[in-house]
Task: inverse folding
C-alpha cells in the first residue's frame, strides 16, 4: 500500500503511542484522522501533526460506542469524502495488579474489557466500510505500556491482540483486507521507551506497506 495516497485513522491519538504513530504517518504524507476521548491530548497531537502536514483532521469521541464511531465515520465522509484505507488501533496497557490486591481487581477487569471492546468496535466498523467499498484495506492493532519498568499486563494484552489479529485475518482475507499486530517484546524489559517506540512505528509502517503481511503479530 502507498501510504502517501492513504487515509489513516488513528485511535487514542492523544496518547503517547497514538501521537507518535500519527506524527510518523503525517511525515509520510498520509491523510490523517485522529480521534480520542481526551480532548486536550487530542488537540495537542493534532497541532503537532499540523506542523508537518495540512491533511490532518481531529474528532473528539465521547466513548467507544457504536453510535459514537458511526458519528466519527460520518465526519470523515463529510470532511474527506473517503473512508479510511488504514486503521491503527493504538492501545496503552496498564500494569496488572497483584493477585492478592482485591481492591484493584475490578478496575483491571474493566480495563481489559474496555480494551477488547475498543479493538472490536473500531475494527468492525472500519472493516465493514472497507468491505462495502471493496478497498484493499489494512487494520493494525498496536499496544504499548505506560510504565516500561513494569510490563505486567502486556502478556494478557498480547494474547488478546494475537487472537483478534488471527481471527480477523481469516474472516477478512476474502475481502482483501489485511490485519496485523505490533506488541512490545517482553524479552527486552530494560529497553528505553524511545527505542521501543521507534520499533513499534517501524513495524506498523512495515505491515501497512507490505501487501503480503496478514494474520501475524510482530514484537518490537
Result:
Amino acid at each position: 500500500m502507498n501510504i502517501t495516497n492513504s487515509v489513516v485513522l488513528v485511535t487514542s491519538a492523544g496518547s503517547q503511542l497514538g501521537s507518535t504513530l500519527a506524527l510518523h504517518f503525517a511525515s509520510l504524507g498520509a491523510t490523517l484522522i485522529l480521534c480520542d476521548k481526551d480532548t486536550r491530548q487530542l488537540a495537542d497531537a493534532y497541532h503537532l501533526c499540523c506542523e508537518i502536514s495540512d491533511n490532518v483532521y481531529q474528532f473528539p469521541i465521547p466513548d467507544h460506542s457504536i453510535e459514537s464511531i458511526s458519528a466519527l465515520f460520518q465526519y470523515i465522509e463529510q470532511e474527506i469524502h473517503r473512508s479510511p484505507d488504514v486503521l491503527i488501533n493504538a492501545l496503552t496497557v496498564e500494569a496488572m495488579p497483584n493477585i492478592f490486591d482485591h481492591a484493584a481487581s475490578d478496575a483491571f477487569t474493566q480495563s481489559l474489557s474496555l480494551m477488547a471492546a475498543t479493538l472490536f468496535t473500531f475494527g468492525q466498523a472500519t472493516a465493514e466500510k472497507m468491505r462495502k467499498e471493496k478497498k484493499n484495506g489494512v487494520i493494525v492493532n498496536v499496544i504499548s505500556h505506560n510504565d516500561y519498568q513494569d510490563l505486567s499486563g502486556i502478556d494478557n494484552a498480547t494474547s488478546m491482540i494475537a487472537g483478534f489479529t488471527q481471527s480477523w485475518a481469516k474472516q477478512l482475507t476474502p475481502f482483501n483486507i489485511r490485519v496485523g499486530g505490533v506488541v512490545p517484546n517482553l524479552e527486552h524489559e530494560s529497553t528505553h521507551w524511545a527505542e521501543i517506540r521507534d520499533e513499534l512505528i517501524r513495524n506498523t509502517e512495515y505491515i501497512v506497506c507490505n501487501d503480503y503481511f496478514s494474520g501475524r503479530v510482530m514484537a518490537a
